[in-house]
Design a protein that fits this description.
By secondary structure, the protein is of the alpha/beta class. The protein has 2 domains: about 130 residues, Alpha-Beta Complex (Aspartate Aminotransferase, domain 1), CATH 3.90.1150; about 240 residues, Aspartate Aminotransferase, domain 2. Helices cover about 35% and strands about 20% of the residues. Strands 4-10-9-8-7-5-6 form a 7-stranded mixed β-sheet, sandwiched between helices. Strands 1-2-3-13 form a 4-stranded mixed β-sheet. A 4-stranded antiparallel β-sheet has the order 11-12-15-14, with helices on one face. Strand 7, helix 8 and strand 8 form a beta-alpha-beta unit. Helix 3 runs parallel beside helix 10 and helix 10 crosses helix 11. The structure holds pyridoxal-5'-phosphate. The site of pyridoxal-5'-phosphate has 15 residues, from helix 4.
């Protein structure tokens, strides 16, 4: 049988095809408008077609889109300095940046760096229910055995411990083979899971005690989304390595791996690379995104909008809890109807997604307005009212 789509079937058949975006809105091929409370999975934090980013991309495309990393370009250094400024403020330490094109590649860089820093140690400890990417190494770091099953054998050197269980980490760190601990401060794809206060600090201390790197995956949580520039600031952590992607280009594919100076120094020419990483077009988007985020005080935007959205969600029929921080929120439902509810929400003009059978994820742009939040809460309220009636 000839497949109906020329695309590999790695994603479910889409229900809608979007052709345009404006701020918090998406428009489909029939001209219907939707409120985008997913932001391309926490990517378009400044909204669609943000003018500063559009202008930067357009003018860079007319000047120089791409040049090999065998040569310099005028943008990668300044963008790395901007990122390092934010991370130095947050950690008290300066570092260096490697640019790539996605979250998985940022974590791949972190994993290679950890092995390079500590010859003889190769194990990366990560947590169950984490998500770190889909390349083989980052899939191996991802703590979801069901996702490993079709691709066995997984690369060696990855150990998973239950999220929140510090005793299990201490056991995993015994034996002297662990190069790094890798963690999301809030597990996003895994269900918007926020650990108990103190767990992440204990994790950092445990890693330091055995001389392993403490690496934080801020690919979904970073750049203002949780109400601070980085989610690790909530417990005043000082990670050695931080990975970023998603919001960094506001839709242009850009990933970054930042490491403290002395850690970054382990890489020498030839150790790692990427044809597109740090190219001018991507860097123009990243620079405009970061500068605009800094101008707008992106974390403060997320905090303000979070209070309104959280309160609105808590009042809805069928919502028993709201997890997360800032604008990385999970509405926990009293019944496992999240998949049906998100499909109904889409039909009603609201884009969200289900991260668990009973959890709906909401990651609107940080620039979302109060009226847009009211509208989204109203749509979700009527969808949940129907779902709860249908299933209860
Ligand atoms: N790490 C986290 C925390 C993520 O949420 C994701 C993507 O959802 C990734 C890594 C992988 O990023 P990418 O899909 O850009 O490779």
């Amino acid at each position: 049988m000839i497949p109906s789509s020329p695309l590999m079937a790695t994603y479910p058949t889409p229900l809608v095809t979007f052709v345009q975006g404006e701020g918090s809105r998406l428009i489909d091929a029939d001209g219907s408008r939707y409120l985008d409370f997913l932001s391309g999975l926490a990517v378009t934090s400044l909204g669609h077609a943000r003018p500063e980013v559009v202008t930067a991309i357009a003018s860079q495309a007319e000047t120089l889109s791409h040049v090999s990393n065998l040569f310099g370009n005028e943008l990668a250094g300044p963008v790395a300095a901007l990122l390092d400024g934010l991370l130095a403020d947050a950690t008290g330490t300066h570092g260096k940046v490697f640019f790539c094109n996605s979250g998985a590649e940022a974590n791949e860089c972190a994993i290679k760096l950890a092995r390079r820093v500590s010859p003889g140690r190769h194990v990366v400890v990560s947590t169950l229910d984490s998500f770190h990417g889909r390349t083989l190494a980052t899939l191996a770091a991802t703590g979801q055995p069901a996702k490993h099953a079709p691709f066995q054998p997984m690369p060696a050197g990855f150990v998973h411990v239950p999220f929140g269980d510090i005793g299990a980490v201490e056991t995993a760190l015994e034996g002297g083979e662990v190069a790094a601990v890798l963690v999301e401060c809030i597990q996003a794809e895994g269900g918007i899971n926020v650990p108990e206060r103190g767990y992440l600090s204990a994790l950092e201390s445990a890693a330091r005690r055995v001389g392993a790197l403490f690496m934080v995956d801020e690919i979904q949580t970073g750049l203002g989304r949780t109400g601070s520039w980085f989610a690790f600031q909530d417990e005043a952590l000082t990670p050695d390595v931080v990975t970023l992607a998603k919001a960094l280009g506001n839709g242009m594919p850009v990933g970054a791996c930042w490491a403290r100076d002395d850690v970054a120094a382990a890489f020498t020419p030839g150790d790692h690379g990427s044809t597109f990483g740090g190219q001018p077009l991507a860097m123009a988007a990243a620079r405009a995104t970061l500068e605009t985020m800094i101008d707008l005080d992106a974390p403060a935007l997320a905090s303000r909008a979070s209070a309104q959205l959280t309160a609105g969600l808590r009042d809805l029929e069928g919502v028993v809890d709201v997890r997360g921080r800032g604008l990385l929120l999970g509405a926990v439902l009293s019944q496992p109807v999240a998949v049906a509810a998100t499909a109904a929400a889409l039909q009603a003009g609201l884009v969200v997604n289900a991260v668990r059978p009973d959890v709906i994820r909401l990651t609107p742009p940080l620039t979302v307005s109060a009226d847009e939040i009211d509208e989204a809460v109203m749509i979700l309220g009527s969808v949940l009212h129907e779902q709860m009636g249908a299933d209860g």
